[in-house]
Amino acid sequence: MAGDLCGPRTRADGEISMANERLKADAVMALEALEDQLSGIAELQRRRMALTGTAFACDKRIRVTVNAAGVLVDTQFADDIDELSYEEIAAAMTSAVQSAAADVERQADELMRPLLETRAKLPKLSDIFDGAPDFGAPAPLAPHDGSKPPSPVPFADPRWSGSLVTESD
Fold it and tell me: Nearest-5° angle of CA 107, CA 109, CA 110?
């Protein structure tokens, strides 16, 4: 009986063995690529966090700079800013900050492009393991056109349902 269990392999056994070797090679390749990506991600994140976007408005009378998160971090007005109305300044500020945020987002996309291209070449988990989920697709977000602030989420604590300003203030 022992001889039957350890006897020569059949053609089907060889095909299974070759398939297993291919799966092993794919898994090793994916793990090596993952290690390479992980080693570069920290540097990319550091570089991304250092990004800034700058935009001008009203014939360069207004200059704004945003950080990597799109948050306004610097505003400069030219000496002749007083030639503009408050409404013109407000509209120009909004437009300039949105442009600067779009600029920093474009820079971040360019910075991340090589990493995303490398990731796209890697086999998916489901390609290696049958039935494994694919985690590559991000969940869709509702679009926001930036024309007005998103609706505030109601605060659940009833103690804060009224005005924050009291007559004693």
Answer: 65
Please state the pTM of the whole predicted model. Answer: 0.56
For the domain spanning 52-125, the CATH number is 3.30.1310
pLDDT digits (tens), the chain, 169 positions: 444 455 555 555 566 677 788 888 888 887 887 787 777 788 888 899 999 999 999 999 999 999 999 999 999 999 999 999 999 999 999 999 999 999 999 999 999 888 788 777 777 767 777 777 766 655 556 666 666 665 554 444 444 444 444 444 4
Per residue in 32-60, is it b (16+ CB within 10 Å) or e — as a string?
A: eeeeeeeeeeeeeeeeeeebebebbbbee
Residues 6+ apart with CB under 8 A from 102: 53
Domain residue limits, the chain: 12-50, 52-125
